[in-house]
Amino acid sequence: MKPSLYPPVSLPNLLVAIVLVVTSLILLSATIHRGSSLSSSSLLSTAPPPERSWPAVWASYSNELPEPKYFHEAGNTLEMSHYDVRFFQGVIPYSQHCDVLQHLIRSYLSIMASLKLETWIAHGTLLGWWWNGRIMPWDYDLDVQVSMSTLEHMAKHFNQTLHDWRYTTDEGGQGVQETKKTYLLDINPNYSELKRRQGMNVIDARWIDVDTGMFVDITALAERNPVVEPGIWSCKNFHQYRTHNIWPLKETSFEGVRAKVPLDHERILVAEYGEKSLVLTEWEG
Ligand SMILES: *[C@@H]1O[C@H](CO)[C@@H](O)[C@H](O)[C@H]1NC(C)=O
Ligand SMILES: *[C@@H]1O[C@H](CO)[C@@H](O)[C@H](O)[C@H]1NC(C)=O
Question: Key word Coiled coil present in the record (predicted)?
């Protein structure tokens, strides 16, 4: 008898073979499904978990130590999470916070442009731009994005640099007053690390008002997986975009200074905040 190349077909062998085939089919169909959902929706976006309360939540459920974090806020509450702890001098009253935010974003956009660093407005700040070209009166945070290569350049040449900003006001005909402000550009040393670390590592850089501790959050978009998913850009907080959703950026203005927004800004806003965000003219009264 010729020696067989194959093992004898016994019942256990047959069962093992069936299990293997079924498992491969399941895995294959999962992969195809993921692939098709990627190509059918041109923009993917998942609402991020509530970042700011994570340290406390994590500490109460886990025996693991909290992950390291570079930027520390003045506290975990909604109110305190808008200040960098190093510069926190006290909570800014509601009537004054808009002023602080306006000068933060004007200085950031203008100084980045003068340094030839490409940046654009994002998230809630983009929604404010869409409606009014301004910060929403109830907003407490400002969000901008850069590409990973811009962030690398910033980290190399501008980390921990201070930038002066002067502006004049003429309130109630009191005569023109000049105010000088200073802002700090600070870059997270682990910006290039892909891990979110339970939300501890999602902010890549900040533009901080050194008088109040209020800031602009800067996050970088990178092609995380250029071989498998070319042209898919994402931050560490699950927001994903295609190259043509962002570039070429649209030139516009925001709070009276020159600004840039993503090309597909409406689609991005609908993906992030829903259709109603571009329709409803009332919010929380
Ligand atoms: C940065 O990453 C290193 C290596 O994982 C870690 O030891 C360090 O604590 C991290 N620092 C911050 C500020 O995230
Ligand atoms: C930026 O500078 C600070 C202070 O020197 C440092 O702790 C941080 O690691 C630096 N960030 C980068 C990206 O090098």
Answer: no
